[in-house]
Design a protein that fits this description.
The protein is an all-alpha fold and 335 residues long. It is built from 13 helices and four strands.
Length: 335
């Protein structure tokens, strides 16, 4: 009987691992298609690279977090720790790992708008996120306020994009890419919309497999779902941001790296947490500790002086952020 029990657990664990890897793959491919289609459409409209990173790319690469969190919170019973841990872990990953690796590859010049507007916004909403979680639950009305915030934020960014000079776009993407996007025919636009639709479909199915596989793995090893969400799931759903940042660093597109990382953090709290708790109240258990929330907030505070210093993230500062991320993973392993 004991052998049969162990055999069933092993089969469930192996199946969970396969489903988890399948989910990761689909999330990555789906996000890539979504970002590609959305970016080309935005370029056709003449939007600057920073705004593209803060809105279109940030939303596209945050789509895995959104779908995974929604899927987890709609489970029966709801997996609030998986949903919230995914957001907290993803924001830690965005700041410490994504910016860290991007700066290690090539120092990142920080746009003045980031330090004067986007970082203060991120600090305020990160503090607000901690405040609404003070009682361990995010109610529907709190989710509605957060989601209204992301609509306001997106509208404000696109309004600002209309008054920015076209030189900011050419600075990063180059005239050839801009002209190609602007001269795209109806067939190309339809293909871009198709990429977005297919990408979202892959994200939905991939998120389902990721949540199911991750839960099986956690159950097999006796690890809490919060720990799995803060590490493996958070890293998995942050793969699109990581891939985008690595490519952007190699191509010297610093605005996309900063915009993608900071914009994704903002979208994770306002859009993902807001929409997820609007669909169903979002609760957490003691497994997702206050320390995790405060580490996320402390990292956000820490990166501000890095960005203010000579308005760039150096390789040394990128290395510090990367070491902080590795230290946090080590802390979770010990905990």
């Amino acid at each position: 009987m004991l052998d049969q029990h162990h055999r069933r657990r092993f089969v469930a664990h192996r199946r969970g691992g396969h489903l988890f890897l399948l989910g990761l793959g689909l999330l990555y491919v789906g996000a890539e298609w979504l970002v590609k289609g959305a970016k080309e459409i935005s370029l056709k409209l003449g939007i600057s690279p920073l705004v593209v990173g803060l809105t279109v790319v940030a939303f596209g690469t945050s789509a895995p977090e959104l779908v995974v969190s929604l899927q987890a919170n709609l489970e029966n019973p709801p997996k609030g720790d998986l949903a919230l841990g995914n957001i907290v872990g993803s924001n830690i990953c965005n700041i410490a790992l994504i910016l860290g690796i991007g700066a290690l590859i090539r120092p990142i010049v920080v746009h003045l708008q980031i330090v004067k507007r986007e970082m203060p916004i991120l600090l305020v909403i990160s503090g607000g996120f901690l405040w609404v979680l003070r009682d361990g639950e995010i109610a529907r009305w709190e989710g509605a306020i957060l989601f209204a915030g992301v609509i306001l934020y997106t509208v404000a960014n696109f309004w600002q994009a209309r008054i920015e000079s076209k030189s900011a776009i050419l600075e990063v993407f180059g005239s050839t890419e801009i002209v190609a996007a602007k001269e795209a025919d109806a067939g190309r636009i339809i293909m871009d919309v198709g990429l977005i639709v297919v990408g979202m479909t892959a994200l939905v199915f991939g998120a389902n497999r990721l949540v199911f596989g991750g839960s099986n793995i956690a159950s097999y090893f006796g690890v809490s779902e919060a720990a799995i969400a803060l590490t493996v799931v958070a890293f998995g759903t942050s793969l699109p941001e990581l891939a985008t940042s690595v490519v952007a660093a190699i191509r010297r597109q610093g605005d996309l790296i900063i915009g993608n990382a900071v914009g994704s953090c903002i979208f994770n709290i306002l859009c993902v947490v807001g929409l997820t708790s609007l669909v169903a109240p979002l609760s957490r258990t003691p497994e997702l500790q206050d320390a995790d929330l405060w580490i996320m907030f402390a990292l956000t505070v820490t990166v501000v002086p890095f960005m203010w210093s000579r308005r760039r993230l150096s390789r040394v500062e990128g290395g510090i952020l990367f070491v902080i991320y590795l230290s946090y993973i080590g802390y979770l392993a010990v905990r």
